Amino acid sequence: MQYSIKDVFSPKLFHTLRHYSRAQFTQDALAGIIVGIVAIPLAIAFGISSGVGPTEGLVTAIIAGLLISVFGGSKVQIGGPTGAFIVIIYGIIQQYGLTGLTIATVMAGILLILMGAAHLGSVIKFVPYPVIIGFTAGIAVTIFSTQMNDFFGLGLTDVPANFIDKWIYYAGHFSPNWWALGIGMFSLLVCIFMPKLTKRIPGSLAAIIAATLVVWLLKEFAPESWGVAGLQTIGDLYELPDGIPAPHLPALELAEGESFFTLIQKLFPSAFTIAMLGAIESLLSAMVADGVIGDKHNSNTELIAQGIANVVVPFFGGIPATGAIARTMTNINNGGRTPVAGIIHAVVLLLVLLFLGKLVGMIPMACLAAVLIMVSYGMSGWRTIYGLVKHPSRDLSVLLITFFLTVIFDLTVAIEIGILLALVLFLMRTNEETHIRTFHKEIDPNEDTEVQYNLEHLTIPEGVEVYEIDGPYFFGIANRFDDIMMHVSGEKYPVRIIRMRKVPFVDTTAMHNLSMLIQRSHNEGMTIILSGVKEHVHKQLQKGGIEQMMNPKNICPNIRVALNRANEILSNKQ
Fold first, then answer.
1. Could you tell me if residue 316 is left (phi over 0), alpha (psi between -120 and 50 degrees) or otherwise beta?
2. Domain range spanning residue 50?
């Protein structure tokens, strides 16, 4: 198949600007402003929960959001930090520090660019849905667990990264700050009930405005005896700059006896996980958006844009980024139809960072924890899981294993084992769906035979046995078919016909077993006839040397020709 450069990299922005209008700009501007406002608390919360800070979250949303909109393959995709990355980022920082995160993110960006250049934009189709739901639900539970410190105002430091150790640590040091808990509960209620009042104002934004105002009033006017001073805000823990940090190279700190190449080897699994998460989430978001606006995104271009963003962002201190489904849908629902809306969203975030840093610093940490608790609830996919629990299946086992591996171990292990397990179950299903039938005396053409316009039963001569493989002829079926053939007496059936009309493909194991069967049958004075071999399967047999082992007359186009050939062979033997 031939590909042009447009299949690989064709940003939607340049297509939409050819016929751009003032009316469309007005819609995009309104949508971009709203999405920018919605993205403020999320960018800050994701940055803090990832183990970096609010600045890194905002910088990522600004730079990655801009680059993804300019170079992306979707008209309405909004890029930035997302909850899916929190777990993997936090783990990398704990083990390798900020330098390790920078290197892993750049490596992930390069992998994404290579995936797009290699036309792997359909990668999402190869990740089973139970695996996606499993690790997404696992991420949701992990995010929820990381928010307990701020939500209850525990003020703990050095909280373990491991899920089980974390909850043991919480239980041993549980001494809540009731003011923080009150602000957290208040914010949670606003997030829950605001959408019921109006869809125009996001619940997270309303919660942050209301909670920030309440905390400011308490700190300004409440007496010291109330103990309000213990309410922590972003400004109490982080220093917010008044602009985008200058690009810089990370300070490379290597352990004794460790080379840079060794560090890259250690970070590659994490980089691969970031790249896979970025690809899955961005392409899922683009697919959902296509269904709403009636457009078709360019998957390869989208992957390259995600890669560019993740290569550039780390040099400004940012974290991994991808397409965000919630922000993309907010963009669509408010009239955004071109990448201009995403560019304006990035400009809005930049203005916030430049001029509203002090206000951002007043946001209470308990409120951010409440916002992320709502994010984790939205990510959990509990309805899908509940539906699978009601109807147990192998998919449920894949989902649950991926979920528990994500929570107890880490995301890299969960994705690798989840995909491997799904592949094994797929092969088992394929093996079960492929049937091997045996015919001894006659064949009923009414049972979907390839012989047309002849409904008479086809008589199988004595001394001939017919086997039919219905489904893919791969290693699992090849071994089962070989076992069946091994138990057949050579004296009773000197001719064996193998019907392959319903075999869509053969693999190396199948060709090896078939060649061994032909050789063994020849040694025992038996003849193998192949019937109804499809053209592309026939070519595979030619390349595998199977045809050279047989008389060309013994590869027949249909069962009638094969039976006639069997009669001819029997006559010659007699």
1. alpha
2. 24-154+234-381
